[in-house]
Amino acid sequence: MSPAKIKMRQLVDWRAAIWAGAISGVVFLVINMLLTKFYVGSPWVVIRLVASIVMGTRVLPPPADFDATIFVFSLLVHFPLSIAFASIIAAILHRWGLLVGIIGGALFGLALYVINFYTFTFFFPWFFPMRSWIMAVSHAIFGACAGGVYEGLEVEKFVPVEAEA
Q1: Domain segments of the chain: what residues?
Q2: Of 104, 105, 90, nearest in space to 16 by CA
Q3: Which stretches within the chain are classed as H helix?
Q4: SS3 state at 1
Q5: Could you give the CA distance from residue 64 to residue 46 in angstroms, rounded to a whole number?
Q6: Poorest-confidence range of 31-35, 85-89, 105-109?
Q7: What is the rounded CA–CA span in Å between residue 74 and residue 95?
């Protein structure tokens, strides 16, 4: 009899996924704030939009200046979502390496854009005017960054799986 073949299954590195979410979340915010400042006139529009998910529309009217409370609420919404989305990207793409992490992450980011701006606008109609190439590109960059950072930080671990007879 030949020895049983042992198959191995790769595990997700959750620590790397959390870091990928945090780093990608910062990149996403910086890109959105820079582009919104250039095209809309205030970098704080995006911060207020994210905060409005929990604070309601009262944070949206002009002037779109800095407000510490709104900023903190925005971060409390944005970073858990970034970490959750990066963890999903990691769980889906962790087996295939850097290139697939970046490309697959970008595609996942575009899917998030579609979900956020073409579905959730039913619940948050004030998001509708933010449908734009800026948001589409920033979501794709978020996903690419999350996939790439995850793959760069991942410590590969494997566990044995019983082979089928």
Answers
A1: 11-155
A2: 90
A3: 14-39, 44-55, 68-93, 98-118, 133-153
A4: coil
A5: 9
A6: 31-35
A7: 33
Q: Sign of dihedral through CA atoms 143, 102, 159, 162? A: positive
Structure tokens at 132: 């734009």
**Residue 72 CB coordination number (10 Å):** 12
Tell me which residue of 82, 84, 45 sits closest to 67, measured CA to CA.
45
Q: C-alpha distances in angstroms, 46 versus 31, 39, 52, 63, 110?
A: 10, 12, 10, 13, 18
Q: Which two tokens stand for residue 8?
A: 């191995």
Reply yes or no on whether the pLDDT at 94 is more than 50. Answer: yes
Q: Which residue has the tokens 């992450």?
A: 105
Q: Three-state SS for 11? A: coil
- For the question of whether the overall pTM of this predicted structure is more than 0.90, the answer is no
Higher pLDDT, 37 or 58: 58
The pair of three-digit structure tokens given for residue 2, joined into one six-digit string:
């030949």
Pick from 72, 29, 40, 36: nearest CA to 54: 72
Amino acid at 63: P
